[in-house]
Write a structure and sequence with these properties.
Structural class of chain B: mainly beta
Radius of gyration of chain B: 13 Å
Strand content of chain B: over 45%
Helix content of chain A: under 10%
Largest sheet of chain A: 6 strands, mixed
Oligomer: heterodimer
Shape of chain A: globular
Order of helices and strands of chain A: EEEEEEEEEEE
Helix content of chain B: under 10%
Number of strands of chain A: 11
Structural class of chain A: mainly beta
Chain lengths: 112, 114
């Protein structure tokens, strides 16, 4: 079945620096890759997503890249701010399984 | 107007008890889910229902029994609670069960078994 690995598990950056979180998936049939942000004590919420027919997508300070050949996708946050501090989850949807498989999460701390 | 609401938000109970968590969505979505988030923050799918029909049942002990009386509700009943059941349980919904659908999570139910 699908497996999604996510690295790093924790990431600390200085305010204003960039943060990169990487995920690898195993099922080549996966075709949709969302990213969720979970603030402390809150629910996970979608922040950006990418489909398998697109290599890169950007929304203001966040961007996601996808390398289908290598089965890698990454979240890039530029000009980080303290409010970016949260746990970030990548996920992959494996076509035919009806499942979203989540990565293990990355705790991002933005130091002021 | 809460899109996905679940109750109770906090639940502390003794081992061996039976408890239920209720979930309702007012988004008109066809698909609902239960996810379990453990102390390490791992998010694991437990069940998925599409239009009241069970689609996914992820090797969850049969002490856990979901019930979907209609497509707007998905409740979770847990029998004979164990210490390892302590976790945050998130109800969620999406418009359809296919690819590309945003999952909307409820606020979570913090279950502590003592």
């Amino acid at each position: 079945g699908e497996n999604v690995e996510q690295h790093p598990s924790t990431l600390s950056v200085q305010e204003g620096d960039s943060a990169v979180i990487k995920c690898t998936y195993s099922d080549s049939a996966s075709n949709y890759f969302p990213w969720y942000k979970q603030e402390l004590g809150k629910r996970p919420q979608l922040i950006i997503d990418i489909r398998s027919n697109v290599g890169e997508k950007k929304d203001q300070r966040i961007a996601v890249t996808l390398n289908k050949t290598a089965k890698h996708f990454s979240l890039h946050i530029t000009e980080t701010q303290p409010e970016d501090s949260a746990v970030y989850f990548c996920a992959a949807y494996a076509s035919g399984t009806y499942k979203y498989i989540f990565g293990t999460g990355t705790r991002l701390k933005v130091l002021a | 107007d809460t899109a996905v609401s679940q109750t109770p938000k906090y639940l502390v109970t003794q081992m061996g008890n039976d408890k239920s968590i209720k979930c309702e969505q007012n988004l008109g979505h066809d698909t609902m889910y239960w996810y379990k988030q453990d102390s390490k923050k791992f998010l694991k799918i437990m069940f998925s229902y599409n239009n009241k029909e069970l689609i996914i049942n992820e090797t969850v002990p049969n002490r856990f029994s979901p019930k979907s009386p209609d497509k707007a509700h998905l409740n979770l009943h847990i029998n004979s609670l164990e210490l390892g059941d302590s976790a945050v349980y998130f109800c969620a919904s999406s418009q359809y069960q296919g690819s590309g659908n945003t999952i909307y999570f409820g606020e979570g139910s913090w279950l502590t078994v003592v």
